[in-house]
Please model this.
Amino acid sequence: MGKVISGFISQSWIPVFTGMTVFFFVLQFTGSMPYISGSDSAAFAQGDWKQQFAEVCGKTQNAMELSKDDLRNSIERCNKLEQRLHELNGPEGSEKKVYAHRLKMCKDLYVFTLEHKEKQETENNEK
Model:
C-alpha cells in the first residue's frame, strides 16, 4: 500500500489514478463503455434490448411515411425483439412486461400501416 506523505498520495498509487482517469475520459467522450469480457458482458447484453426497442419503436410516429419494405423490416425486428424479451429472465420482470406490451403496440401499428398501404395499392391498380 502507498503511504500518505504530507497529505499527498505516494507515487505507488499514481498508476491506479492514471488508469481510472483514462477510463472515465474514454467513457465521457465516447458515450459508451469499453469492451468488457466474460460474465460482465452478459450483464450488459441483457440491457441491449432497450436500445433495440428504442430503435424499432422510434419510427412509429412516421409509420405512414415508411416504405412497405421498411415496414416489413420493422415488423421482423419487432418479432425478433419480442422473442428476445421472452427469453430474458431476471429481476426486471414487470418492466419487461411493460416493454413487451409497448412493443406489441408498435408492431400492430406497423402491421396496420402495411396492410393499409397494400390495400390502397390494390385499389389504385383496379382503377
About this structure: The helical segments are 14-30, 39-46, 48-57, 68-87, 93-126. Residues 93-126 form the longest helix (34 residues). The mean pLDDT is 74.
